[in-house]
Amino acid sequence: MTETAVARVISSPMLVRVCRIGIGLVMLAAALGKIGDPGAFSTQIHHYRLVPVGAENLLAVLLPWVELLAGLSLVLGPHARSGAWLSAAMMAVFTLAVGTAVARGLDIECGCFGTADASHVGGMKLAENLLLTGAALVASLRLR
Amino acid sequence: MTMPENQGRDPDMAGALRGALLIVVIGAAMGIAYNAMGLASRPKHGLAWIKQAEKLESLEALQGAPATTGAAGEAGAATTGASDSEPGPGDAAAATASNPPPPKPAPGSGAKSDTSAAAKHADAAASAPAHGTAPAPKKGGTPSGSQAAAPAPKKGTGPTGSQAAAPAQKPAPGAQATAPAATPPPAAGAPATGAAATTAAADLPVIPDVTGPLKLELATLKKLYAANAALVIDAREAADYADGHISGALSLPYNDAMAEPERVKKLDPAGRPIVIYCSGGDCELSMDLAKLMVEAGKRKVLVYEGGFPEWQGAGMPVAKGPNP
User: Model confidence over B186-205: pLDDT tens digits?
Assistant: First the structure.
């Protein structure tokens, strides 16, 4: 398969739409898991030791709602590309956070879906996040 | 790799970025509104806007004066009483290898320490303000707290490496060789060394049996350390521990404790309070580990906020390497 053919597949409207819906649902699930218990999410942020303590609560309060709107925009359609760009940016930051946690040998809860998911950071989670970041980038492509 | 029909200028890009900004602004506004409603509701369920670093109650403040001593009669029991934690032979036997107590050289006995750290410790113990005599070595061999009343055998050398990990007395059958040498409280009326130990115990601060962790100052830690009346734990990473740690402290990195809660549960302080430290300053590992300890049912958990830098700066005994 030539490079152009690969590009054509990746940017196919069907794949872009599937990615938008998929990433949108992931964002919605992540947001709802965090909105339900912002205190627990704040603690999960704390475990990464990447954010100043004073900012942890603020991040725990704001981030899930941005995820929620990004997810809604992806699933429902309006501003889908905006939601996709935002999702890609957030996924890139999350991937970096998980990557640094793995590199530092931390064995902490990912916090990816708030308290709804007790999975820990690790190689698998890193791969999962990289995949989602890629999918979010595909979702951000312009529909032909 | 180029995308067909997505090459070059993307006319929608500016609009997409504006939309992303709009989502961020509206999302932030919704988050703020939701949290504000939570804070205004009764009972309150919102988060404080700015998270405050947790402040621990000070042990010294609870005692009424900085680094004060407890009443002679209650000090021993209050500090090293067998009622705290959950000591038991089973727990003790299961304790991990890296759990020796702080070194307890015997300056009074004239025995020479075989390490510079232990020698320093001996000096510190001898010069502790309220100790007329250096406390007797208390290397309770059996991990069981029930042995507390038995006269402690003398051990002139400071514990290093495997020496430190080995119990001074015969271990209970099945006990791992690495079980910590439980330090029993000084026995009332014990001969010779017992009297010195009692003097030391009389000088020890009273550790109230509160549910949460407390912080303690260097002066108080010095007294506990000199009397071997606390289990000192280093909450930093193993590499930091190897670079230098409080002599005799055992390594239990917070991350390891998170990953293996059993290590915390099985930790047996042998009736002593647990003192946790990290790198001082903004370091929160000691506080976080202290919380884990409390959640695991440990009592009399103390956080030494000054951490290793303050301890080292005060010229107190330090050791290097992976062993206590």
Answer: 333 333 344 444 555 667 78
Chains A, B: CB contacts within 8 A come to 123
Q: How confident is the model at residue B8 (pLDDT cuts 50, 70, 90)?
A: low
Are B255 and B71 in contact by the 8 Å Cβ rule? The answer is: no
Contact of B158 with B148, CB cutoff 8 Å: no
ipTM above 0.95, yes or no: no
Give the nearest partner residue to A85 out of B20, B48, B258, using CB atoms. Answer: B20
The 10 Å CB-count burial string (b at 16+, else e) for A43-64 is bbbbbbbebebeebbbbbbbbb
Output phi, psi for B280, to 5 deg: 70, -170
Contact B182, B94 (CB under 8 A): no
- Identify the residue whose tokens are 């038991």: B88
d(CA B72, CA B200): 9
Q: pLDDT tens-digit profile of B106-165? A: 333 333 333 344 344 434 333 333 333 333 333 333 333 333 333 333 333 333 333 333
Min distance A64 CA to chain B CA atoms (Å): 8
Asked if the C-beta of B14 comes within 8 angstroms of chain A's C-beta atoms, the answer is no
- Cα A35 to its chain centre, rounded Å, is 15
Looking at CA atoms only, how far is residue B312 from chain A in angstroms? 25
The pLDDT value recorded for residue B144 is 35
